[in-house]
Structure formats: structure tokens, C-alpha cells
UniProtKB/TrEMBL annotation:
This is MCTP2 protein. The keyword Membrane applies. GO terms for molecular function: calcium ion binding. It is a multi-pass membrane protein. Coiled coil: none annotated. Belongs to the MCTP family. It comes from Melanocharis versteri. InterPro entries: C2_dom, C2_domain_sf. Pfam families: C2. Keywords: Calcium, Membrane, Metal-binding, Repeat, Transmembrane, Transmembrane helix. Its main location: membrane. It comes from the Eukaryota. GO terms for biological process: regulation of neurotransmitter secretion. It is found in: Membrane.
């Protein structure tokens, strides 16, 4: 019930290459659980923004009235990584010792926001649901921690995919929940849901 909504949400997106990247934003209006209406879109050329500073942007919505006010900061990724199982970060004993020292009790209050790291090894899935007419699926796995999201590659035509990827997240809130969702890639259409698990960090 507002024409001037304030969300005050922060999202972290990670990209690891030098390719040109556009941030696409859609604003939606929801009447009820079933009816949604697109109120407008806008785009931000990430490569054109100055790095290591917060950029205040007022973006007009294309072909619709209104604008979107946002703060965008482009900075080097720290603590976030995707790697193969054979070159797993934190696998080196010396590196693990440095991490243990960094997060020992006497250093607990050195940086309140630096709580620790979570490393997740996504090995494989077994007996997934068949989403295609061929009796197979094209599964990929999405990991979400707070507002951080990383995903695996797609393994095509397989109900028992092996990804063998290692994901490392910085932890910002010990009460966060790691959500791991498996989807079926469906070309230009939205992916189909194949299953999900939720793991509270406090249970690890």
C-alpha cells in the first residue's frame, strides 16, 4: 500500500571474471498470492562504476513512471570462492593454522563483523526427480547464506549428478541458515524445483 516503498535491504553478488556485467533490476507489485504485475525495469552497467566506493544511483524505470534509489559498491571479493575439489581452499595445513589463529578466543573482538568462514563441498545428488520428457533432468545446485548466493554448473541429462565443487562463504551472522536448492535447467524458462535442504549454522 505504498507508492514510495523503503526496503533497506543489502544483497551481495559475486562475479569472478573480467567479462562485462549488467545488473538487471525488476520492480513488481503484488496484489495477492496469485496476482503480480511488473512495475518497471532498470539496468546498471557494473563495469562503468568506480570501484572501492559506494555509488548512489537514482535509476528511472523503463517505460513506467517512477525511479529506484540504490547504493552500489563494487569491491574485490574477499572470503568468497568457488573451486574444484582437487584445489580446495583451506586444505593447506598452514592455511588452516592461520585461520585457527585468526578466530581464536583472544582475537574474538578484534573485528566484530568478521565471524568466520563456512566451506561447503557439494559432491553429488542421488535419485533426483525426472523433470524432462526424456526421463532425465539437467540439475544444478544453488547455495544461499543470508543474502549471498553461489551456484554450481549444470550436469545435463543426469539424475545422479556429480558436481565436486567447493564453496567458501564469509559468515556475517551465526544465526544464518545455509539453504541448498537443486533446480532443473529449462532453457529460457524459469528452472524447475527439484528439492531443498536447510542447515542452520548453529547445527554445524
Amino acid at each position: 500500500k505504498s507508492a514510495n516503498p523503503q526496503w533497506r535491504e543489502q544483497f551481495d553478488f559475486h562475479y569472478f571474471s573480467d567479462r562485462k556485467d549488467m545488473l538487471d533490476i525488476e520492480v513488481w507489485r503484488k496484489d495477492n498470492k496469485k496476482h503480480e504485475e511488473l512495475l518497471g525495469t532498470c539496468h546498471v552497467d557494473i563495469t562503468a562504476l568506480p570501484t572501492k566506493q559506494t555509488n548512489c544511483l537514482e535509476l528511472p524505470l523503463e517505460k513506467h513512471p517512477g525511479s529506484l534509489l540504490m547504493l552500489v559498491a563494487v569491491a574485490p571479493c574477499t572470503g568468497v570462492s568457488i573451486s574444484d575439489l582437487c584445489v580446495c581452499p583451506l586444505g593447506d595445513p598452514n592455511e588452516r593454522q592461520q585461520i585457527s589463529q585468526r578466530y581464536c578466543i583472544k582475537n574474538s573482538f578484534r573485528d566484530i563483523k568478521d565471524i568466520g568462514f563456512l566451506q561447503v563441498k557439494v559432491l553429488k545428488a542421488v535419485d533426483l526427480m525426472a523433470a524432462d520428457f526424456s526421463g532425465k533432468s539437467d540439475p544444478f545446485c544453488v547455495l544461499e547464506l543470508g543474502n549471498d548466493m553461489l551456484q554450481t554448473h549444470t550436469v545435463y541429462k543426469n539424475l545422479n549428478p556429480e558436481w565436486n565443487k567447493v564453496f567458501t562463504f564469509p559468515i556475517k551472522d551465526i544465526h544464518d541458515v545455509l539453504e541448498v536448492t537443486v533446480f532443473d535447467e529449462d532453457g529460457d524458462k524459469p528452472p524447475d524445483f527439484l528439492g531443498k535442504v536447510a542447515i542452520p549454522l548453529l547445527s554445524v
